[in-house]
Amino acid sequence: MKKKRKLVQLICAVLYNCHITGFAKGTIYQGSLKSACIPGLNCYSCPGAVFSCPLGSLQSALVSSKYRFPYYMLGVLLLFGILLGRIICGFLCPFGLVQELLYKIPSKKLKKSCWTRRLSYLKYVILAVFVIGIPLINLTPGFCKYICPAGTLEGGIPLLIKNESLRQLAGGLFQWKVLLLTGILLSSVFIFRFFCRFFCPLGAFYGLFHKFALFGVRIDEEKCNNCGACIRHCKMDVKKVGDAECIQCGECIGTCHACALKYVKNKTF
After folding, report:
1. What gap in Å lies between CA 102 and CA 97, rounded to an integer?
2. Nearest to 17 by CA among 60, 50, 65
3. Residue 191: enclosing H or E segment and its boundaries?
4. Up-side HSE of residue 242: CA atoms within 13 Å toward CB?
5. Does the pTM exceed 0.90?
6. Which of 106, 117, 102, 81 is nearest to 193 (CA)?
7. How far is residue 223's CA from residue 261's CA, in Å, rounded to a whole number?
């Protein structure tokens, strides 16, 4: 399962950013495909990106909600959440793949604890304040502007490398975002999916659908003997397989000696 998942993550990262000439020219693709959103976190301004980021699009829609309600973006995000939930985090998010690759670097690792579980709620605060609150009140895409590390890594840095005029315009805000990106990438070496667990508002949003998502890892309660092996093996801050913190990676399935875990369709549908 682990190798298959990594392959899916890699394929998605390539497909989302297949406008190769954009990296060579330092330009952003603005074709018709940009009107569609992919489910994972991938910056609109990445020179290779051929689709829009759902978070960036939602913030832009909220900024303009003074004039029209963002039915389209809310509908798209609700559809992603109901169909897949946090399977998107485990399989379809390029920035999740970046963090997992960094975690493979040999080093001492910080194990999950009650403190990491408490910190996992921070991403819900970021969702409420930077993704929803600031765009509605200050009419600016707060998360993209002040936080998003994917935007800095995929969009800001490649564009500045190729465009001298942009380098001259880069100021304190960009320096802050580079500093934040550096901290997140370094932390990802020692803490599994550091950004996903503590900061990602997209994961927070998809986590709201953990009980309703159409597909996911489910527990056969009749077979489960409550040994807790799945929770101990999981690197995320889950209390139970399939809860809001579960990214549906499926790595717990192989640890269950009772064969009580498997990917299934939600019986609610």
Report:
1. 9
2. 50
3. none
4. 19
5. yes
6. 102
7. 9
What is the rounded radius of gyration, in angstroms, for the C-alpha atoms of the chain? 19
pLDDT tens-digit map of 203-254: 999 999 999 899 899 999 999 999 999 999 999 999 999 999 999 999 999 9
- Residue closest to 200 by CA, chosen among 4, 29, 53, 13: 53
Distance, CA of 69 to CA of 46 (rounded, Å)? 27
DSSP-derived letter for residue 217 is E
User: What CA–CA distances, in Å, run from 259 to 215, 220, 232?
Assistant: 18, 8, 16
One-letter amino acid for residue 226 of the chain? N
Which residues are within 8 A (CB) of 30 and not within 5 positions of it... i.e. 6 or more apart?
Answer: none
3-state secondary structure 42-75: CCCCCCCCCCECHHHHHHHHHHHHHCCCCHHHHH
pLDDT in tens, 43-100: 999 999 999 999 999 999 999 887 778 888 899 999 999 999 999 999 999 999 999 9
Digit-coded pLDDT (tens) for 153-189: 999 999 999 988 888 888 899 999 999 999 999 999 9
Written as one letter, the residue type at 8 is: V
- Amino acid letter at 43? C
3-state secondary structure of 146: helix
130 contact partners, CB below 8 Å, separation of at least 6: 142, 143, 146, 147, 201
Residue found by looking up tokens 């389209």 in the block:
72
264 backbone dihedrals φ, ψ, rounded to 5°: -140, 165
